[in-house]
Every structure is written in C-alpha cells, then in structure tokens.
Design a protein that fits this description.
Distance between the termini: 95 Å
Helix content: over 70%
CATH superfamily of one domain: Leucine-rich Repeat Variant
Subcellular location: Cytoplasm, Myofibril, Sarcomere, A band; Cytoplasm, Myofibril, Sarcomere, Z line; Cytoplasm, Perinuclear region
Number of helices: 56
Protein name: Protein unc-45 homolog B
GO cellular component, one term: A band
Keywords: Chaperone, Cytoplasm, Developmental protein, Differentiation, Myogenesis, Repeat, TPR repeat
CATH architecture of one domain: Alpha Horseshoe
InterPro entries: ARM-like, ARM-type_fold, TPR-like_helical_dom_sf, TPR_rpt, UCS_central_dom
CATH topology of one domain: Leucine-rich Repeat Variant
Shape: flat
Strand content: under 5%
Radius of gyration: 38 Å
C-alpha cells in the first residue's frame, strides 16, 4: 500500500507512453515527470528520462532534451536511443562536436544503421565547415588588420589579407564579426594610409558589411560619416570612385529596402533612415559642382543620382526626391553640362561626365508629373542661362551655349525651347564668326545638337546650313571642320531631303564619307574630335555605297573599333548606328506597291532598294567587320555604364550581334573574341525587341559551340533563361527551332545544365513542339527531350498517369523520318533502362507498340536498329515475365536470331552485340533453349 500512495512509477510511465503515442506531448511530459518523482529503480528511471527526452525534442526544448538523455546515459553508457536523442538535441543547440561524439558511439554500436551513418557524415561536414569559419573568426579578423596596417608586410601577404577581409564581409556572420571586432575604426585606419589598394580593400569590405542589414548599415554610416565617403569617392582614381559608388548603392539599398530582422522595442528609434538618406542626397549634390572632386568621382555622383532619385516605377506617386534634387541641385548639374574643358579653371571632368549629366537631366525631367513642375524646371534652366550670357565676357557666354547643348542631349523640349528664345540664335551667329577657335567649336556643337529633331525649326535649317558651310570653307582648324561637316550631315538628314547637302560645295555623300574616314584614321587628331568623324559616318552610312566603301577600308574600321574601346563612352551610340547601317540590321521598311505607283504618278521620290543592300553584299560586309575585330569592340561596349549605354543602344548592339551570327561558319570567331559572354547582359535587360534579338543570337551560338568555351564559368547557367524565353509560341518558328537546338546542345553537356533547363520551366514548351506538325521543330524538340531524359524530374513526367507523353514517343519511333526516329528511339531506350515500370506502360499506350519496335529492329540505319534492340533488351530485363514471354513468342525472336547470328561487321557491330545480349537474357529467363549445334 505504501508504494501506491506515492503513485506507481510504472503506471505513470505507461500512461505517459499512451499520451506520447496519441500525440499529446504536454500530458506525456506531466506523466513522465510524476513517474520520475516516484521512481527509485535506477534502470526504470533511465527509461523514464529517455522517454521524456523524446518529448522535449518534439517540443523543440533542446536543453531539457539533452539533460534528460544524459541522465539515461549515466545509467547505461550504451543506451543507443538516449545517445541518438542527445545527439539530435546537441546539434540543435549548436554543440556539433559533442553531437558528433554521440552519434559516433551509436554508429560503433550499430555499424549498419543508415540513419546513424548519414548523421555522422552530415555532422562531420558541418564541423569541417564551421572549423573553417571559427578558425577564421576573431583572431583572424584581428590578424588580417595587423597584416594590412603593418608597413613591414610583403605586398603578396597584404593582397591576400585584403581579399580575405572582402570575402569575409560578404557573408552575414563574417560581416557581423568584423563589425564586433572594432572593424570600422580599423578600416578607417586603412583608408588613412592613403594607399589606393588599402582604400579599395576597406571600401569593398564596408560594402559587404552594409549589404542587407539596416541597423548595422546605419551604425557604419554614422561611424564613417557621409563626408568621409564623399571625399573617398572624390579621389582621382577610377577604381576607388567605382567601389565607393557601389558602397553608397549598398547603403541606399539597405536603408530603403528595409530589413527582415526583428529589433523589438527599439525598432522605431533604430530604423528611421530618412535623415540619413537626405544627408547622402545633399552630399552627392554638393559633389556634383565641387572643384575638389575628380572627374571619376563626379561621374559616380551623377550616376548615383540617376539611379536613385527618379522613381523606378511610375506607379509610385512620390517624386519628392526628384523635386528636392531639382530645387537643390539643378543649377549644379547645369554647371557641369556647361563646362568647356578648353578654357582655364574648369571643373575636373572625364570624357563622359557631360553626357552623364545630360542623361541625369533627362531622367529628372521625365520624372516630373505635372505641368507646374515642368514649368519650374524650365524656369530654373532659363534663369541659369540668362545669368551666364554676358556680351562682355565670352567665356561666360560660351558656358551658357554649352549648357544648352547639354539640355538638347537631355530633355530636348527644354533645350529646344531655350534655343528658340530671342537672342540665342544671334549669339550662335556671333560665336561662329568669332576669332577664337573654342567659341566656334562650342557654337557648332550646339548647332549639331539642336538639329537632331529638326522637323521643329525650319528657320534653323536655313540659318544653320549657311553658317556651317561658311565655317567649313573658312576654318583652318580640323577640329572645327569635322564638327561643321557633321552638322551639315545631320541637318541634311533631318530636313527630310538632302537639298542642303546638294547645295553643299563638296558634292556627294561619298566624298563627305571619304573625308570622315580620313579624319578617323588620323592619329594626330584628338579622340574627342575623331569621335565626331564617326558621328558623321553614322549619318552617311545610310547610303549603301558609303557603307560598302567604309567596310572595305580596314584601317578606318579598326580605328573606329579602337575608339569604341577607349575610355570615352559618349561615342557608343554613333558606333552602334554605324554598325546597324553596315549590317542592315535595322527594322526593314515595307514598300507597298500601290504607294509606289502613287508616288511615281505624283513624281515623288520612291525609295528603291539599292543593289548594294542585297543579301550577298550584306554577307560580305559582315565578313569584313568580323575580320577587323568587331566582336571584341562590341564586348567592350556592352560593359559601359548603364547611364550611357541606354536601352536603345543595347537594342542596336543586339541587332548587330544577330546579323553577325547569321552564318554558322562565323560563330567560332564570335565566341573566340568573347561574343558569347557579351550577349548575356543584352539578353537579360533592355527593350523587349532587344532582348529577343540578343537571345536569338545566343541561341545561334549555343547551338553549335562548346558551352564551356562560349560561356566560361558560371555564366553558362545565365544563358538558359533567355533561350527558354524563345520557346514561347509568340516567337517565330526560326527562333523556336534555334532555341531548341541550343538547349539540346546544352542538355547534352552536363546534369547541372539539364537540371537548370528543367528549373526554368522549359519542359511544357519542349513537349508542345514534339506534338508540332512542323517536321524540323518536331525533330529538334524530340532531340532535346532525348538529351533531357536522364534527369529524374523528366522521368517523373513520363511516369505520371493521364498524359500522352510516352505514347507520343512510341509513335514518333514509327515515323518515317530518320532523324526523328533516332531521337525518339534514343529517349525511349534511356527511359526504359532507368524506369522499369515504363516498360509495361509502353505496351499499353498504343496497340502498335510491337510492330513499331520490330520496324526499329529491322531498320537499315545501324544507329536506329541498335536503339530498337536496346529497348527490347530493357523490356526483357524489366522483371515482367508476361511481357518477356509475349516478346519472345512474337516474330521478335526470329528478328533477334537473324541479327545475332550474323557475321561480325564493324558497321553494325553494336546492333549485333545487343541482339546477342537479348538472346542470352531470354535463355536466362528460360524462354528459349540454349542453342545446340545440329549434327
């Protein structure tokens, strides 16, 4: 009776077990705890603790689970259940070493237990990985800084340490560790050294630390200070300017993108970033017009503004950042546009600064959402220009005219309105007649820019043409002569006819183009001026005779490509236009016969196709461009800054690539010069038309090249999405076909690529084309599928019920087209080899299966015959005795015997051997007697 008053531990334990089985864990814990209190028997107590440990595991209370399991192990060191439970709890508590020891004991006690072995392997790998990082933790962070800040250290060790820091900062745990270990002050010390490679390492490390963690980013921003960052970006070093720009971008993304972490009560205090964002914006605007900032720093400040001020998505109502920028910074940006590098005392600029400033002006103006906002923008511009026009001060006046040039390349309407103002045209005329070359140059450039949308101002054409002609004839200065010529080309094409050129003394377009080519090839002339020669050619190559002459002039081509690779990126648009003209890759205008008749009747000029725009001429031109190195020039152009390489330019480059890749024989050259890599960014971003053309060019290249060479490294995985996008039914048949061919090639290459193709959801499209009436598409899709069937997910699609996939494959094996049969039989041979259940399924999808198989085995092509016999072997080998019997009782036995008994024959050996293997299998199954020789 005494024991019962205390409560019976065994009863409590059994009750606990019942609750545990029923899934009521809380009740189970209650019972086990009562049992433990009442229990005196050591062994029973161990069992109770072990059971309660299982409950705590379920409740994810790992500390209690581990301590209960330990109590059981104290009683019996070989208690395998308790050991494994403790291992699971310890792993969850992050004590991997101890967990590893426990499961090691388990595995010694039961060496065949799969769970233990698997856990052992997994924990082993995790410990290795953790060792790597813990080893690289605190002491190593400190260590890296010591190496970097020590003057004695060798260069190589410094580089290693710098790289380690950058890599460590990219990982969340690493970034936190650097931060906790006094990292920010130490990074500031690195920057203080003033050595470019140290500054770079520090800035890149900070970028990693500021990625995706709002609170840490704000702390770093306050420790380093916006001014400090700006002063680093202002250094005259392109790499440092770019790296700092990237740091600002990381900070901006973290502060605006928010942060998924929980900060509890302090959330509101910690995370209001609006002040910081405003401080950054003001500092960047200050940089724009500061003399202390290098050209590279200015470019990056303008780029950051371009990227982060205007709304990305028009649906967002809030454009307050733009309005703030217009109020606080518009004059500063206009100042940059107006700089005339030839004059003394100007802001430091790069070749690209003024164009980047124009692009920013355009984006800001575009982002304004109502007329009053636009009027305010125009007023500020007008006021600024008025304040600079001073008849007594020529330098100030040409600054004003140059600012208008900048506006004409940005928000054209604003520039155009200003040009129309009283007095501006007179100033231009005066400047054109000035003694100073620089005045003439600025005026001519302004005329060129204002003529690009010429339909507006016919008075301008007449005035402009006479001014430019005059200058062209009088000037001795090549720089001005070239610009005047380009102005005449532009005015000529903008006027809609070439009357202005006809009055132009030098005569024909060909002569003008010849002159441009001469300038282009003259190394004595500065880059900025030779660029204008390309601008001229961009217009003149609309004429087929001109393009043909230009492409035959290899020196001129090479000169253009060299310029395209130079630091001056303002040239990209003109190069792209010229290449579009030379390859005829613009959108063709359809000529409608009725309209031609009408035009002839009304004596209008009819656009007729020039003989040199026929196919064979274009092919010749492509050959010459490739020979002169067009691909490597394009590869460099694609890397340009997004603000200069606009979506429109990207589309043009994509069109050129597609024209270059037309002939399969040229694709090797394109790959060798890095064309494959260069196409990927064009296929992923830009206009719809541009992306489709770039994807199509990618498909042409990927269909016939070794992917590892064409798209080195991880890039090959980025190629797949653009290729899959070409499978959509709204693309044309040629694009579908070439996409399928390229995916087939990639799928034949590696399992990782196959998995990626499946992940990009290409299978439904590929299957659709297998049902297609069009022979080539159907064959290409089947070949693609044949290369994909080794993929588990693809096999599962064939195993699913309620679809015709398998039936289709069997029927395609019966088609008359050799290529199609080869692919379908190949896919079927693979599927039946790996999935035995498909063997029986194959016989149920169509009543013709046997007849189709027999035809494959009798095929005149050895490759198809071999695949057919392999399918038969797979059916015999499928552990389905009924099916094997059915096969051997049909004519198939005779077919196999005839093939198997044939003489050895190298051409058909694979098929003969396969047939013999089938016969041996049939003997093993006891379906045929072993051959006995007849006496």
């Amino acid at each position: 009776p005494f024991s019962h008053q205390m409560g019976d531990p065994v009863q409590f334990k059994d009750e606990g077990n019942k609750h545990f089985q029923a899934g009521d864990i809380d009740k189970a814990i209650e019972c086990y705890s009562k049992a433990a209190k009442a229990c005196t028997d050591k062994k029973l107590l161990a069992v109770i603790h072990r059971n309660r440990s299982a409950c705590y595991l379920k409740k994810e209370n790992y500390a209690n689970a581990a301590s209960d399991a330990s109590k059981a192990i104290d009683v019996d060191a070989a208690d395998i259940k308790a050991l494994y439970r403790r291992c699971q709890a310890l792993e969850k508590l992050g004590k991997l070493d101890q967990a590893f020891k426990d499961v090691q004991r388990c595995a010694t006690l039961e060496p065949k237990n799969k769970t233990f072995l698997e856990t052992l392997r997994r924990l082993g790998a995790e410990i290795q990985a953790k060792l790597k990082t813990t080893f690289s933790t605190d002491s190593r962070v400190q260590n890296m800084f010591d190496i970097l800040l020590d003057d004695e250290t060798g260069k190589e060790n410094k580089e290693k340490a710098a790289n380690n820091l950058i890599v460590l900062a990219r990982d969340e745990a690493g970034a936190e560790r650097i931060f906790q270990n006094n990292g920010v002050p130490l990074l500031l010390n690195l920057i203080q050294t003033g050595k470019p490679e140290m500054i770079l390492a520090a800035v890149r490390t900070l970028s990693g630390m500021c990625t995706g963690h709002k609170a840490r980013t704000m702390a770093i921003l306050h420790m380093v200070g916006v001014d400090k960052m700006c002063s680093i970006m202002a250094i005259d070093n392109e790499e440092i300017a770019l790296a700092t720009c990237n740091l600002f971008q990381c900070i901006n993304d973290s502060l605006t993108g928010g942060d998924k972490r929980e900060y509890g009560k302090e959330e509101a205090l910690v995370l209001d970033a609006s002040k910081d964002l405003k401080a950054i914006l003001l500092s960047l605007l200050k940089m724009v017009a500061s003399k202390k900032v290098s050209g590279h720093g200015r470019d990056q400040a303008l780029n950051l503004l371009s990227k982060n001020v205007p709304r990305q998505i028009r649906k967002e109502k809030d454009n307050s950042r733009t309005l703030f920028t217009v109020d606080h910074g518009l004059r500063k940006i206009l100042k940059v546009c107006g700089q005339v590098p030839e004059l003394p005392d100007q802001l430091p600029l790069t070749e690209n600064t003024q164009l980047i400033a124009s692009v920013l002006l355009n984006k800001l103006y575009d982002d304004l959402s109502c007329d009053p906002e636009r009027a305010n923008f125009k007023d500020i511009c007008e006021e600024y220009i008025k304040s600079k026009i001073d008849p007594k001060d020529m330098d100030k006046t040409i600054h004003a005219v140059n600012t208008i040039s900048g506006l004409l390349q940005g928000p054209f309407d604003v520039g155009n309105a200003l040009v129309g103002h009283q007095g501006i045209m007179e100033i231009m005329v005066a400047l054109c007649g000035s003694e100073r070359d620089v005045d003439q140059m600025v005026a001519v450039e302004a005329l060129i820019h204002s003529s690009s949308k010429m339909s507006r101002a016919s008075f301008f054409i007449t005035n402009g043409v006479s001014l430019l002609k005059d200058i062209y004839k009088k000037t001795k200065n090549e720089k001005i002569k070239i610009r005047a010529l380009v102005g005449l080309c532009k005015l000529g094409s903008a006027g809609g006819d070439d009357y202005s050129l006809r009055q132009f003394a030098e005569g024909s377009t060909e002569k003008l183009a010849k002159q441009c080519r001469k300038w282009l090839c003259n190394p004595q002339i500065d880059t900025k001026t030779r660029k204008w020669a390309i601008e001229g050619l961009a217009y003149l190559t609309n004429d087929a005779d001109v393009k043909d002459d230009f492409v035959e002039d290899e020196l001129a081509l090479k000169a253009m490509f060299e310029l395209a690779k130079s630091k001056d990126k303002t040239i990209l648009y003109a190069v792209a236009c010229t290449l579009i003209n030379c390859t005829n890759s613009y959108d063709k205008k359809e000529i409608i016969p009725e309209l031609v008749q009408l035009a002839k009747f009304s004596k209008q000029h009819v656009p007729e196709q020039h003989p040199k725009d026929k196919k064979d001429f274009i092919e010749q031109r492509v050959k010459r461009l490739l020979k002169a190195g067009v691909t490597s020039a394009l590869a460099v152009m694609v890397k340009a800054d997004n603000s200069i390489l606009t979506d429109q330019t990207k589309e043009m480059l994509a069109r050129v690539f597609l024209a270059l890749a037309e002939n399969p024989r040229d694709r090797g050259t394109i790959v060798a010069e890095g064309g494959g890599k260069a196409l990927i960014p064009l296929a992923l971003e830009g206009t719809e038309a541009g992306k489709v053309r770039a994807s199509h060019a990618l498909a042409k290249i990927a269909a016939i090249s070794n992917p590892e060479i064409a798209f080195p490294g991880e890039r090959v995985y980025e190629v797949i999405r653009p290729l899959v996008s070409l499978l959509h039914t709204d693309r044309d048949g040629k694009q579908n076909y070439e996409a399928l061919r390229s995916l087939t090639n990639l799928a034949g290459f590696s399992e990782r690529l196959r998995v990626k193709i499946v992940k990009e959801n290409a299978l439904p499209d590929i299957e659709n084309y297998m049902f297609e009436q069009h022979d080539q598409l159907r064959q290409a899709a089947t070949e693609c599928m044949c290369n994909l069937v080794t993929c588990k997910e693809v096999q599962e699609r064939f195993l699913q019920d309620g679809n015709d996939r398998l039936k289709l494959l069997v029927l395609l094996c019966g088609e008359d087209d050799d290529g199609l049969q080869t692919a379908a039989a190949g896919a079927l041979a693979m599927l039946t080899a790996v999935q035995k259940t498909l063997c029986a399924k194959l016989t149920k999808v169509t009543s013709q299966w046997l007849e189709i198989l027999q035809r494959l085995c009798l095929h005149h092509k050895p490759q198809i015959q071999h695949r057919g016999i392999v399918i038969v072997y797979n059916l015999l080998n499928s552990d389905d005795s009924e099916l094997a019997k059915k096969l051997i009782e049909s004519e198939m036995l005779e077919i196999l015997s005839v093939i198997g008994k044939a003489e050895d024959n190298p051409k058909r050996q694979e098929a003969i051997d396969a047939a013999r293997t089938c016969l041996v299998k049939a003997m093993d199954l006891g379906l045929i007697k072993p051959f006995t020789s007849t006496s």
